[in-house]
């Protein structure tokens, strides 16, 4: 019996290996998170460096136009590493997605608050959520200094601008571009980056904010636990930014979604504010699980005189949470 040539054996081996490779769905390894766990709601938060406020000179007319790039990762701030398995799409997925998009668009165009926003000149229907919160809690007052996190497209800044009057200061920041608004100082960039934080300090002119707002929502993956974790990363960050920018006795309003980590965030808010209200604005969509936590009377652990470096987040096991909705929806 003749031994087959080595080339034929190798071809057979390589062919078998190729078939096995095609039969198995490829796996993209998760990118390990380089961020420590926070001591807030239990999700990843990047450590913030020292914050330096200017001691002399006036703030420039434009803020954050230097093209700050997004942090590596996924989602709005890219803080959740994940494992993604690719494969053939399930039958009917594309058709179902298209039908859902058409249904959402039809509902959106008929929505009362969408029409009201067009009539009143607001950039999105989300403006009415803040207006309804304002009716209940008088969160914003004339002459306040306000920091609006995740501000694009700008409807919350528009509401704040009308209430604050000519003496108020609004600093809006987002990783996304936001068209200019009269009387609003906008910093485009990731506020985890030192350069962006320096520009926020310049825009605030060395002051602490009276109010911190956050209507932030993550980019959605369609996977509930991943989206939930991404959202509570943002809540963590908003609370963490209060340690840097919110004055003693100040107020805050944050979007949250009911889920596994909701009670943890509520408890953390109650530990940092004298009073916390849970608000369900009528402008929130009926199918949405979003709520807004309104904190009044911020409790600072340091001197309120000057912005100080926030304490490093302590290690803590992570949790999961969600049902995210798009910002400005």
TrEMBL record:
User: Could you tell me which InterPro entries the record lists for this protein?
Assistant: RNA_methyltr_RlmE, RNA_MeTrfase_FtsJ_dom, rRNA-MeTfrase_E, SAM-dependent_MTases_sf
Q: Which domain of life is it from?
A: Eukaryota
Q: Which UniProt keywords apply?
A: Methyltransferase, rRNA processing, S-adenosyl-L-methionine, Signal, Transferase
Q: What is this protein identified as?
A: rRNA methyltransferase 2, mitochondrial
User: Which N-terminal residues, if any, form the signal peptide?
Assistant: 1-23
The residue ranges of the Ribosomal RNA methyltransferase FtsJ domain are 122-298
Any single GO molecular-function term of the entry would be: rRNA (uridine-2'-O-)-methyltransferase activity
Q: Which Gene3D superfamilies match?
A: Vaccinia Virus protein VP39
Chain positions covered by the region annotation Disordered: 299-329
**What is the similarity comment for this entry?**
Belongs to the class I-like SAM-binding methyltransferase superfamily. RNA methyltransferase RlmE family.
Q: Which Pfam families does this entry report, sorted A to Z?
A: FtsJ
Q: What species is this protein from? A: Hemiselmis andersenii
């Amino acid at each position: 019996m003749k031994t087959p040539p080595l080339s034929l054996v190798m071809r057979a081996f390589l062919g078998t290996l190729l078939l096995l490779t095609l039969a198995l769905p490829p796996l993209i390894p998760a990118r390990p998170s380089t961020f420590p766990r926070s001591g807030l709601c239990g999700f990843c938060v990047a450590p913030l460096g020292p914050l330096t406020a200017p001691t002399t000179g006036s703030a420039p007319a434009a803020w954050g136009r230097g093209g700050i790039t997004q942090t590596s990762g996924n989602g709005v701030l890219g803080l959740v590493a994940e494992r993604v398995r690719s494969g053939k799409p399930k039958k009917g997925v594309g058709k179902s997605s298209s039908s859902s998009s058409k249904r959402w668009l039809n509902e959106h165009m008929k929505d009362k608050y969408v029409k009201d926003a067009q009539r009143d000149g607001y950039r999105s229907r989300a403006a009415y959520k803040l207006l309804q919160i304002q009716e209940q809690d008088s969160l914003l007052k004339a002459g306040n200094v306000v920091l609006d996190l995740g501000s694009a497209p700008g409807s919350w800044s528009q509401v704040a601008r009308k209430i604050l009057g000519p003496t108020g200061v609004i600093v809006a920041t987002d990783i996304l571009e936001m068209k200019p608004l009269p009387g609003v100082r906008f910093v485009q960039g990731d506020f985890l980056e030192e350069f962006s934080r320096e520009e926020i300090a310049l825009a605030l002119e060395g002051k602490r904010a009276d109010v911190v707002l956050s209507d932030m929502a993550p980019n959605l993956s369609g996977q509930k636990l991943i989206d939930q974790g991404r959202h509570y990363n943002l809540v963590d960050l908003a609370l963490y930014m209060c340690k840097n920018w919110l004055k003693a006795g100040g107020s805050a309003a944050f979007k949250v979604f009911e889920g596994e980590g909701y009670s943890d965030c509520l408890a953390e808010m109650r530990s940092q504010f004298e009073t916390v209200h849970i608000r369900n604005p009528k402008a929130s969509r009926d199918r949405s699980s979003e709520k807004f936590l309104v904190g009044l009377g911020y409790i600072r652990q340091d001197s309120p005189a000057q912005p100080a470096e926030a304490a490093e987040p302590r290690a803590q096991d992570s949790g999961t949470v969600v049902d995210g909705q798009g910002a400005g929806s």
